Amino acid sequence: MDQKTLFLETPPHRLFLRAALPGSVGMLASSLYQLMDGIFVGRILGDTPFAALNLAMPLVIINFALADLIGVGSAVPISVRLGEKRPREANNLFTCACLLVVGLGALTGGAMYLLAPTLLGWMGAEGELLALAVRYLRVYALFSPLVSIVFAADNYLRICGRIKTSMWLNVLMSALCAGLEFFFLYGLRLGIAGAALGTCLGMTFCAVLAMGPFLAGRMPLRFHRPRFTRHIVGSIFSCGCPTFLSNIAGRVTSIVMNMVLLRLGGADAISVYGILMYVDGFVLPLLYGMCDSLQPAVGYNWGAGRRDRVLAIEKRCFAASAVISLAAAALLLALPTQTASLFVGNSGSGVLAMAVPALQLFSLGYLTRWFSFAAQSFLSAVEKPLQASILSVSVALVFPVALIAALWPWGLTGLWCNQPGTALLAAALAAALLLDFRRRYARP
Fold first, then answer.
1. pLDDT tens digits, one per residue of 35-60
2. Residue 422 needs a FRET pair 20 to 30 A away by CA distance; which of 10, 53, 228, 416 works?
3. HSE toward the beta carbon, residue 398, CA cutoff 13 A
4. Contact 412, 263 (CB under 8 A)
5. Helical residues (DSSP H) of 84-162, grouped into ranges
């Protein structure tokens, strides 16, 4: 089905099923290998490597956040230009964005490789914990230019209407990464470097597979001689800023949280926080995959002036986000011990005892987290990057860091309450921004 028929003519409920469900399945598959990463390292290698992985992971995500910045940031204006029937501008944006992803991946990967001991040392790591974290981080740094493009390719496949292709690509990537990691850890006994190597090799293979049709000229988006302008680069970065700032701010918050946890509870507290982040890394991709998959359709209809379809699509997006979040909260409240046990080996009884109440408190955040998430996606899709950036930075950095300071006297219990408090404040801010958007921008 071509883009115009899919985005502009398909009934909203059918469009939701065609776009959002495969997007959620694809992101769920993508999140599964991250979940398996934590399970494999925690159970095969033990508590200290698991803590090292969680200490290094925020820096890995910061590195890949740049690729996501360009991928998401270029997807929005590309979709809008296609809706405005300006394909040459869309193709130029696509070409420039791909070059930016690979170039920045090389620069940030090199910097991360050189600065790994210093950065992790600043976070409080030392001894074996520091050595393991550096080893893990440097493997990702070496592969950065190769794997970065996979984050952008996912967006471009959806823009071209290849939503199921995007889904199956993520399923394949999840299977490859998990399979290779298990082989390197359990079969070859490569240690924590093997965990990173398995993931990077799986992602590299899928990046080549995803970009092949574009390089062969078999997709609606095509490469041609790039024409960089200040406006193009500014448009990409401004539209990608909400997602980028959310990723960066979230990792900064994780670094701050890790430093505080290391002081209050040692490596066990770091491991518990890692469990919380792996659970969050399973739930949020479901929301992200659904909302992100609808962004091309929302942007296309916004560019075509079909505000009625934009509203219809977003109603379904908000409703489905609420269902997913509430189901996650119910599941975690009912099964905290079973969830924590996935990551803790036989020697981790102290971690397990700490993780159960932490998971129960953490799960309360999903009661309201869905609203700000769907609101941010909508604001990004209709090219309102300032409002989306305000929301993303507040959710990922301002609110949680403020609550770390406010809840510090409660010790570890206060830190586990950070997520519910942040989600409640975020929902209030999202409601205010949407009301302001309705007043100022929603008129035809």
1. 778 888 888 888 788 888 888 888 88
2. 53
3. 11
4. no
5. 87-122, 127-159
Is the model's pLDDT at 428 over the cut of 60? yes
* Percent of the chain at pLDDT exceeding 70: 95
Which phi and psi (to 5°) does residue 384 adopt? Answer: -120, 65
Distance CA 34, CA 199 (A): 9
Q: How far is CA 88 from the centre of its chain?
A: 30
8 A C-beta contact, residue 109 and residue 143:
yes
Q: Which two tokens stand for residue 15?
A: 């469009």
Confidence of residue 261 (pLDDT cuts 50, 70, 90): confident
Three-state DSSP at 324 gives helix
265: left (phi over 0), alpha (psi -120 to 50) or beta: alpha
pTM of the model: 0.66
Residue 426 has pLDDT above 80, yes or no: yes
CB count, 10 Å around CB of 111? 14
SS3 content of the chain, % helix, strand, coil (to 5): 90, 0, 10
Q: Mapping DSSP to helix (H, G, I), strand (E, B) and coil, where does residue 275 land?
A: helix
- Please write down the HEC assignment for all residues of 407-436: HHHHHHHHHHCHHHHHHHHHHHHHHHHHHH
